[in-house]
C-alpha cells in the first residue's frame, strides 16, 4: 500500500511539472513561456469570406498544436473596428491578429502601396513571387519595426472596376466619383491618370455609399462584391484587371514577444499552412465560384474590345512613373523589379 501511494505521488508530481512547463510556453521548463491564453483575431469580412475560412484554419491548427493551451477567437464583420482600426489595434497590442490590406501600413511605410500598383501583374504566380521576394521581405522587416509581424498572407483578389452604371472605356470613367481608401495616396495617383474624383470611404461604409450615390465606382474583387452584397447596388463590372492585392496575416509584436520560441514556431507553422492553403484555393476554386455566383445574380461582366483594352493599357507607363516618383528613393528599384524581373522576363 505504501509503495502504491509513493508511486501515485511521483506520477502526480511529474504530471504537474509537465503541465506547468507547457503553460509557461516551454516544454523543458523555460522561463519565457505563456499560461493558457485566448487570443483575438479581427477581420472586416463576414463568415462566408475566404479570410474567415483562413482564420478558422489557422485557429484550429494553433489550438491543436498547443493541445488547447492557446486558442484564437475570431471577430468577423468589423466587430473590433474598421480595417485601419484593426491594424492600429494590432500595432498597439490591443488585438492579437488581423488579416488586412497592405495599404493600411502606408502611413508608417509609404512604399507599402506599391503592393497594389495598377496594371503591374499578369498572373497570380507573378504576384505571389513578388510577395516572397527580397523586396517584400524587406517590407516585412519594416513592418516589424512598427509593431506588427507578417506571419504570411492571403490573396485579396484581382481588382476590377465595379460600378452603378456600365463602364466600357476610359471615357465612361471620366468624372465619376471613385471610392478611395482613407489615408492612402494610391487613389490620388489613380485620379491623376484616369480623371476620376476620389472620395475616401471605409470598407464597412461602402455599401451604403454606393447605394446613396456618395460614390459611383469602386475597385474591388469578385469575392468582396459577393460577400458584402455590393452587387445589389453596383451590378456592373468591367473586366480590366486593375491590380492584384494581398492581405497579410498580421500578429502584434507585443503578443509575439510574449511567447516562447516553441509557441512562436507553432504560431508561424500554423499561419504558413493556413495561408498556403488559401493561396492555392483562392485562384483555383474560390474566385471562380464567386464569379459564377455573381453571374447567376445578374451582374453584368463586360469584356473590353481589343481597342478598348489598348486604351486602358495606354495609361500604364504614366501610372508606373508616378509610383516611381511618389514614394521613397527605393521605389524606382522596386517598380523596375516588378515590371522587368518578374512580369516581363
Structure description:
This protein starts with a helix and ends with a helix. With 345 residues, it is α/β, with parallel strands linked by helices. The protein folds into two domains: 33 residues; 310 residues, Bacterial extracellular solute-binding protein, family 7 (D-Maltodextrin-Binding Protein, domain 2), CATH 3.40.190.170. The strands form two sheets. Strands 1, 2, 3, 4, 7, 8 and 9 form a seven-stranded mixed β-sheet that branches. The protein is globular, with a radius of gyration of 23 Å. Helix 2 packs antiparallel against helix 11 and helix 13 runs antiparallel to helix 14. The longest helix is centred in the C-terminal third of the chain and has 36 residues.
* First and last CA, distance: 79 Å
Radius of gyration: 23 Å
Structural class assignment: alpha/beta
Question: So, the CATH homologous superfamily of the largest domain?
Answer: Bacterial extracellular solute-binding protein, family 7
Largest sheet: 7 strands, mixed
